[in-house]
Amino acid sequence: MTLAPGHEWIEGAHEAAPVGGVLPAGPPSAPPGRGCPHLRGATAGESNGQEGRRLRALGAAPVVELPGGVRARVVVDPGLAERLSAGPHVSRDAARHWPGYREGALSVDGVIAAWIGTHNALNSYGEDHRQLRAPIAAALTRRRVEAMAPEIESIVQDVLDGLDGLGAREDIDLVQSYALPIPHEVITRLLGVPARHLPAFSAAAAGLFDTTAAPEDVGRSMGTVLAILDQLVAIARERPEDNLIGDLVRAADTSESPLSDAELRDQLMLIIIAGTETTVHAIGTLLVHLLSHPDQRALVMSGQVSMHAALAESLRLRPPIAAVPLRFAVRPFEDARSGEHFGEGEPVLIHLAAAGLDPERYAEPERFDVQRAEGSRSLAFGYGPHVCPGAALATSEVVTAVTRLLERYPDVRLAVTPEQLQEPSSWISNGYTSIPGHLT
Ligand code: HEM
Q1: Mutate to test the pocket of ligand 1, among 131, 315, 348, 388 (most ligand atoms within 8 A of CB)
Q2: Could you read off the pLDDT of 173-189 as tens digits, one per residue?
Q3: In this structure, what is the dihedral angle of CA atoms 206, 207, 213, 218, given to the nearest 10 degrees?
Q4: For residue 253, what is the domain's CATH number?
Q5: Centroid of ligand 1 to alpha carbon of 388 (angstroms)
Q6: What are the helix (H) ranges across 172-214?
Q7: How many domains is the chain built from?
Q8: For residue range 375-398, what is the model confidence (pLDDT) as tens digits?
């Protein structure tokens, strides 16, 4: 096999390695004596980034225990994360590449089951992935997004007009009243989801990011999400309209392997979940970074540095998704650069929040610096074949939302310090659940 530069692998390094999976059968490639901490996320008095820093001290890809007792290699080194994400050796398709799960021998519940148990562009591999991703990517090309710019602008102006009505000196939550309604409205219009479904859908979808939730609660959230999507699929199958749901139905029907209703529903779920919670956090976090760094805000608002650069830096420092469950080693291999071995079927979790704080890639990584000499490019939108197809849309939304808020309310400020802000209890979702602020 010919490999691209930087993707050097030693094939078959662990030919006889047993399969990693749910405890007590831990991953074979963990060197003896290596610790196996629980991945806690922003729950134990530290942020996802801080937890990532602690994990980095254990190596490029230490073993962690995830909810439900799943043991995984958590990849904190950005170079290794890129090589794994871009190469063919890890797959997102549990049904094909997680042997115990595939054969029904592993029982996985809770948040891991919710994330890996669907069949869509995210949880697929190879040709299957290309087919599932194509209609989504076609709807989100840079040209399509540019054409949506006036619509995004008008949505942002409407939400700002709503803020005007809140009263000048009132404390507001910048998440609920600003960061959240904008991506929700954009996704509603893009997909053609009737607005009346969104509040119930969002509340249930938020439950799928809570990595501390009991399996029954995650199951309930999943049930609500699926029931709403089933209705949407049934309506679109009957009469596909000129929106993304209609595009997906038409692509599904003309594909060589037509999608079932359940697979269509899984695709919709992916787009809504991937496109809303993430963008809400991206808007909120960029606001927090700029409002708590007046010098950096001045550089951006004076036009010396673009809002795009500020967003890239904000995404590096606190990516809206700290980690996306889950990948699996397709075969045993060794990454030649890091010397890390992976056993066949071993679960792998790429820690985007840790990768963005790597001290060898970024000078003083914890500092918010919109003019980084080394640049702020990061893994916040992923890397390789699964890289986020919604990046251009999300960027347009965030840049428009934050720019217009700071223009209309030049005195906007936080009502608390950034350290006092509440974070979601999650190692998936990464941002702030509420951002108290004053507009004037
Ligand atoms: C700032 C906002 C966003 C962030 C930080 C973000 C981040 C990500 C990440 C990290 C992945 C996984 C990449 C990987 O596994 O390598 C992903 C995948 C995905 N995102 Fe986004 N995303 C954002 C907004 C959006 C939007 C607005 C949409 C659509 C409307 C979207 C749709 C998707 C889809 C469909 C996938 C799966 C792609 C695949 O597996 O091929 N995302 N995103």
Answers
A1: 388
A2: 999 999 998 998 898 88
A3: -160
A4: 1.10.630.10
A5: 4
A6: 174, 181-191, 198-207
A7: 1
A8: 999 999 999 999 999 999 999 999
